[in-house]
Amino acid sequence: MGLPKKGCYSCNLYNYSLKRCKDGKVNPNTMKGTLEVMRIMGSYSVCGLNKYRHKAFQRQFNGKSVGVLWHNPGY
User: Fold this and answer.
1) pTM here?
2) pLDDT band at 17 (very low <50, low <70, confident <90, very high)
3) What three-state secondary structure class fits 55?
4) Residues in a beta bridge with 21
5) Per-residue CA distances from 70 to 18, 53, 63 (Å)
6) What mean pLDDT comes out for the span 5-23?
């Protein structure tokens, strides 16, 4: 059994006054939106909690298996 889904509003990085992520990440609702964000802004700009991120990342790299999907420089 996997972990429960976590939305933006329950995330520690969500800023309620600005109504956006403190890290500047986005969380599109659709696979098409996720692919567009990855194409325009890069794969690191999509939130790690996005349910389409892993499939979109694999599709972006033509189905090749990639072990690490995020990078935290200096955290």
Assistant:
1) 0.67
2) very high
3) helix
4) 14
5) 24, 10, 17
6) 84
